[in-house]
Give the backbone structure.
Amino acid sequence: MRYDCIIIGGGIIGTAVLDRLTAYRLNVLLLEAQDDVASFATRANSGIVHAGYDCEPGTLKAKYNVRGNSVLWKDAEELDVPNLKCGSLVVAREDGLKGLEELQRKGNISGVKTEILDAAATRRIEPNVASDIAYSLYAPSAGIVSPYQLAIGYADRAILNGGEVRLNSSVTAIEEIDNGYRVTAGGEMFEARAVVNCAGNNGAPVNDLVGAEHYDSVYRRGDYFVLDNTERKNVHTVIFPLPTAAGKGILVAPTADGNVIYGPTAVDTVNGDTASTADSLDALRQNVPLSFDKPAFNKCIRVYSGLRTLIGHDFVIGESKLCKNFFMAIGICSPGLTSAPAIADDLSQEIAKKLGAERKKDIVTVLPRRKTLERLLEDGKQLNELVKEDPAWGRIVCRCEKVTEAEIIAAIHSPLPATTVDAVKRRTRAGMGRCQGGFCGPRVMEIISRELGIPLEQVKKGLGAEIARYRVKEVE
Ligand SMILES: Cc1cc2nc3c(=O)[nH]c(=O)nc-3n(C[C@H](O)[C@H](O)[C@H](O)COP(=O)(O)OP(=O)(O)OC[C@H]3O[C@@H](n4cnc5c(N)ncnc54)[C@H](O)[C@@H]3O)c2cc1C
């Protein structure tokens, strides 16, 4: 099959690039190795929309962070993705004022508005900072977003605008041909005039497949605690310590879905390692109280970890000098989530120009508002009426997060269908609550099995993660 452009990788970068490219008259295909988009770094990060004061001025990180922050809020609203511009604080003790001033200086050069606050002003924004915090750097433009829902939103909108997404399609070969590339993925071959490498942690190996620039990567794991939503009342903003050479440090933050997170650590490791260790979690236990007065590790409902890839000190973005029409956005570590929409704006313009494509006249910009039981009741609907229209509104599948069968069915039939238990979880929050799917998991499996017409034992948690191996008995 022949396309104008193939994107490799369906994280936040690949889906944002797909979204932007489908605004042009181009046939675009995204190839993703996993069985859903947002399956790697994009699902396991802090979900912070950074202000951009800490990036070294003049770098791609600084440029795209600041521009991304100004674009992302509009995208999140259009795509109906949970977000909140709650601001952020970098907190410091008496001896940390110089560090805050240095951050403010960098921010000023990059055009980021910040304010240095004393102890009293800091506590008016966040009463629960640690008792010896004397100053903070306040950035009102920072906030939080659901990272995986943003990627899913980009993919959904792109599909409605004519884009194509192939899941379970790991790219294993790329060959230069006349006027483009031949890409092998999932045992099939695809051709395109241009290719964009957005393969996240596999960015450098994918470059090697085609003979584009070779890069050495450093892989850094970050572990987190997720707390029950009862802790949300204690955290009003994103609280950072002063950054170090290893990164932005261990933060305390609300999530866009109403939980609280502590993390991440920064552990240098190998590609593919996302297993939290006891040492790393201990580091969180020791560090969180240094900036936050109300640590509640006993309210932890799960731990997770994400892996970032560093290539040198900056993002690598643009066309390869060695391979014509082979583009890349790799080494996209933090603040990659915030930067994604701005990176995608620039890359899509560059690619469209090279391919001589014009913008389409009519495209979908706003996705329909997702129907949830909570929203419908808030809008004044009566439960009786809803159940009369569709009995699935009366069946609560996830009791922790109050997710109904109707919402799960909608996710399974969305533009990019959710076909696994984890994919349903990312779209509806079924399984994200206190019991972590202990109750609703089997019900979600049954609904997926019924809606997709596949045997129950073929319903997976995610790629390679089987739940039911085989039937032990048949019930009449
Ligand atoms: C711990 C941590 C905390 C972070 N916190 C923040 C934050 O708060 N704010 C912020 O702005 N940024 C943050 N980031 C950075 C942000 O998460 C990343 O920059 C971003 O998710 C990278 O997106 P990506 O699309 O490049 O990579 P990914 O999300 O990893 O996506 C790459 C995709 O490519 C696919 N792929 C790989 N190889 C192939 C192949 N051969 N064929 C087909 N598909 C392939 C993978 O399956 C994957 O889905 C954080 C990162 C980490 C790890």
User: Anything to note?
Assistant: The mean pLDDT is 96. The chain has three domains: 1-82+145-217+311-369, 88-140+218-305, 373-466.
